[in-house]
Specification:
Layout (H helix, E strand, L loop, with lengths): L2 H13 L3 H9 L11 H6 L6 H16 L1 H5 L11 H11 L7 H5 L6 H14 L5 H15 L1 H22 L1 H4 L13 E4 L4 H13 L4 E3 L7 H5 L2 H18 L3 E4 L3 H10 L6 E4 H10 L4 E2 L8 E4 L12 H10 L27 H9 L2 H10 L3 E4 L2 H14 L4 E4 H7 L1 E2 L1
Parallel strand pairs: 1-2, 1-3, 3-4, 6-7, 7-8
Antiparallel strand pairs: 5-9
Helix pairs in contact: 1-8, 4-6, 4-8, 6-8, 9-14, 10-12, 12-21, 16-17
Length: 417
């Protein structure tokens, strides 16, 4: 690595050094409590996948450039120079971590691995060593935000096609405007993912509840967050914030995408609208008797996988369980309990990297497979696209014999008059 690149990377590192980050970098006592907390280590058993080991990859660079001892006596100060080999280690640490924060719940100091890995990801971006596809996807999202008019015609035509499907399956709920768009003054802006599965069932439930809603022009997913680029994360987020403000909505409802929900909830700042996940909105409709569902629709035992970004990192634990009370008398909670739930193994951009990470995702998630199997349930519900893809891959690979379903689709399928 040339001197100029190293200097630039050190500046990027410095920009991440707020009070919380310094605490995480300075505090580890190497107590080892986090060792078995990581699903990757628990499934594969390699030391390099222990949370504290991942931290150390970043911490040693910190010591080299930001601590006196590390600067003067690198070997005594456990310091490490930023080299090409160091970058490879950063890549291995960051892109084998799903940012699930299970280790953080166990750590007595609450050291946040996801935050420490955000330094690793930023340094990789600075060195042009991040997964290129994630940056390309983030750039595409940003471009769409800049040139809405170019994409608008195709978007509206796509929505028209989907409307026919909403009417076909949920004729009564659909009414005159099955998928409203650009409704100024709507109460709720729904931000979906690209694809009918994220729009059609949601539209059915909104219409059944008599919601005054409108569909966002943008996809919820934030590839800027996956690749760890704060600037791109914000640009992608701002598209939705500006749209919500322009339409003067009271609520922004994020579809079943864990990262999109966490980013909107935690990074959008103070706004004139509230942020909800679709799970929270569906629980509200049931509580207020705005929708009714048929409890006999699903006859098999149902278990629920808490998406890390929605539950442990977003605080939505009770609502899915509230919904499931209406859908079944045979709900089977996984063990350990939701706060300590095993990650599905697909977060942090790993699912978005597709086939390239498939082998690792399968090997690193054996504990998740056991956790699901122990429930004996044959329906595995979840509320995140990433988790759904990863759990479906696990289901195929390990022949788990479950049907992986989106919770929101289950609500839509069970709707009754
Ligand atoms: S955040 Fe999750 S994947 Fe990353 S080290 Fe901690 S437990 Fe492992
Ligand atoms: S539990 Fe916390 S303090 Fe203990 S080794 Fe892990 S990161 Fe360090």
């Amino acid at each position: 690595m040339d001197r100029e690149t190293a200097d630039n990377l050190i500046k990027l590192f410095q920009g991440k050094l707020n009070e919380a980050m310094r605490f995480y970098l300075e505090t580890c006592t190497r107590c080892g409590v986090c060792t078995k907390a990581c699903h990757v280590y628990a499934s594969m058993g390699h030391i390099k996948y222990i949370a504290a080991y991942r931290h150390e990859i970043v911490r040693r660079i910190y010591k080299k450039y930001f601590k006196r001892r590390g600067k003067l006596w690198p070997s005594v100060g456990e310091a490490k120079e930023l080299t090409d080999i160091a970058l490879e280690e950063l890549y291995e640490a960051a892109y084998s971590c799903t940012g699930c924060r299970r280790c953080m719940v166990y750590c007595p100091f609450g050291i946040d691995t996801q935050m420490l890995m955000s330094i690793a990801k930023l340094l990789l971006i600075g060195a042009n060593a991040e997964p290129e596809i994630l940056t390309m996807l983030a750039d595409t999202s940003i471009e769409k935000g800049k040139s809405m008019e170019v994409f608008k015609e195709g978007f509206l035509a796509g929505v028209k096609n989907l409307e026919a499907e909403v009417v076909k399956k949920w004729k009564i709920e659909a009414e005159e405007n099955p998928i409203p768009v650009e409704v100024e003054g709507a109460d709720l802006l729904y931000v979906a993912l690209a694809g009918a599965h994220s729009i059609i069932p949601a539209a059915a439930v909104f219409n059944a509840a008599g919601e005054n809603w409108t569909l966002s022009f943008f996809e919820a997913v934030n590839f800027g967050a996956f690749v760890g680029d704060p600037t791109k994360t914000k640009l992608i987020l701002d598209r939705i914030i500006n749209e919500a403000k322009g339409l003067k909505v009271k609520e922004v409802c994020i579809c079943e995408c864990g990262t999109a929900y966490r980013v909107m909830k935690q990074l959008s700042g103070s706004q004139p609208f509230k942020v909800s996940s679709i799970t929270e909105v569906h629980a509200r409709y049931l509580r207020e008797d705005r929708i009714r569902v048929d409890k006999l629709k699903f006859k098999e035992g149902i278990t629920y996988h808490d998406p890390c970004q929605i539950a442990r990192n977003g605080g939505v634990f009770d609502e899915p369980r509230f919904i499931l009370q209406y859908l079944t008398d045979d709900f089977r909670e996984m063990s350990p309990d939701p706060r300590y739930n095993w990650c599905c193994g697909g977060g942090g951009g790993l699912v978005a990297l597709g086939e390239d990470t498939l082998d690792f995702r399968m090997k690193s998630s054996k504990v998740k497979v056991s956790q699901v199997k122990e429930t004996g349930a044959t329906i595995l519900a979840t509320a995140c696209e990433n988790c759904h893809t990863q759990l479906s891959n696990l289901n195929d690979h390990y022949q788990m014999g479950v049907e992986v379903k989106f919770l929101s689709s289950m609500v839509a399928d069970a709707l009754v008059q």
